[in-house]
Each structure stands twice: as C-alpha cells, then as structure tokens.
Amino acid sequence: MPLEYRIDRERRVVFATATRILSVEDVFAYQREVWSRSDLAGFDEVVDLSPAEELVLASSDRVRALAELAAAMEVPGASSRLAIVAPQDLAYGFARMFETYRTMDQGGAKVMSVFRSMQAALDWLGAEAPGGPSGEGPREE
Question: How far apart are the first and last CA of the chain?
Fold first, then answer.
C-alpha cells in the first residue's frame, strides 16, 4: 500500500507515511481501510507525504470527494486532529486544497492543519516523534 500506517494505541494516533508513488485513489483506499475501523474513533492522525517520490495529480473534484468521504466516515462526537506533513510545494498545495474542502464540510469533527515539517506537526498535536511504519500491514503498539 502506498500509504503505510502504524497505530499507536497509547498515544491514540495513527501515523501514515506515503511511499514511492501516491495517487488520490491510494488515499481513498487508506481512508476506507483505516477509518472504517470503529476502534480508531477519536484517534488523531499524522499523514507524512515527505517520502513520496511522485504524486499523481487529481482533479479538484476528486480531492473534494475524498474530503467528503473522510468527513462522512467520522464518528459523531469523537473529536480528533489531522496533521498533514507536506514539505514539497505540490504536496503542500494538494494538502491545503483537501484542508479547504474538509473545513467547508460542517459535518466533520476532525480539526486539521498542513505543515512543512514533521516537528511542526508533532508540536501542534503535542505528540512525540513516531517510529516509521514497517511491513505490509499496520503495526500496533
């Protein structure tokens, strides 16, 4: 999966890291796989786009559809935060577009922000630096 993830139950954070080539369809697959799990309701999320070698461009309609899906999958009353780390200009622009669509959807409970560095994202969340994801599937601590 082009978005590998690790679940840190103690800190209640899902850490996702992009690998190689990342498309919006990969992000849809990640969204459906991870956030359909009821045991992760209320967890914060960090998505690190730094390692992505290439981002496959998507239309603004697909980014909007992703934002709508993400908001619709949130559990009512389970507030959480999403930090996206996007140091490259293209990734940052797409992450900000996603953030704009996400904030336009009043149904979503997740507060989100986009950062240029992992340290800034972790500071915003009040979290420690994670170990990276490993293996083919999710790793839980």
Answer: 20
